[in-house]
Amino acid sequence: MKYYIIAGEASGDLHGSKLITEIKKSDSKALINFWGGDLMSRAGGSLIKHYRDISFMGFYEVFKNILTIFKNMDFCKKNIEEFNPDVIIYIDYPGFNLRIAKWARKKGYKNHYYISPQVWAWKESRVKIIKENIDYLYVILPFEKSFYRDKHDFKVDFVGHPLMEHIPNRKFDKKFLDKIVTISKKPIIALLPGSRKQEINKILPELVKVAKKYEDYQFIIAGAPGRTISDYNFINDISIPVVFNNTYDLIKLSKAAIVTSGTATLETALIGTPQLVCYKSSLLSFLIAKLIVKLKYISLVNLIMNEHIIDELIQFDCNSKKICFFLQKLLNKSNTTKIKSNYIKLYNMLDQGGASKITSKLILKRVKTE
What we know:
alpha/beta, Rossmann fold, 7-stranded parallel beta sheet, 6-stranded parallel beta sheet
């Protein structure tokens, strides 16, 4: 069969790569065109657009690049028609994917959505669009099933979280730090300033200020997928190594981590490292978000647990002074023990036996029988 997959971010590339692997196990003749990244490329198929060329964060950034976004949509529609897939699989990335799905529905294509848009956070009106244009929706967070089923009368499949396939049984490389000649024997604090250029530019300068105040620790930056060392060059006023392709190993070996809100907060939790969550965007994007986003928390850890498990510093609170205060609190042994105990509860909530495996089998079964 022919599959067209659209993932627009680093996390989508990760989950999409595993989905492709599982599809190929069940369908050896699968032909796959996709929008994604390097991980999906290695899993197989033909890369049409890389996510680093199509991902824009925040309201102002989207507005500024609106013409590019529309051009990408037109190109995507033409490419789908040329490929003529048996099924289109959307992975998160709702602003783009739901518009393509609406067009694809009119053209008669089968629409399967893996990883629900976060309509429970904002734009709940999108549920109507999902119900009208998506044939099947596969959700990865426990509360999403009841959100769709009980509140919106739309049947979905809870398949567990795909990170459970990547992290629990992973073999960590304890020697990878030997490659960094500047490394010391000090305890490590990992810095994850995000995958988007806007996030890095906004958040990393505050983290650099924090690093200057903690001489007893070695700070190391996790270079994001799709980024290069040039994206971090503006921190050359202090010696902070940047490590690529070893993010999980870095988190595992760290005493603590300072993490930009997003999938990385959940990854850090499943690895078991205590963390402090930070987030800062452009002022305009922040003010708009304040008006329309109705959530108690921004980190996936706190949202899933529906409880304040880890501290969050947002926008004006995301400054070096407050980060230092909460980092010191985080490094306290009693707090570390409590956080790790809650991580275990989180782990058990998300394990359903393999999200990508379950999803790929459901997609193949449904496409073949319809």
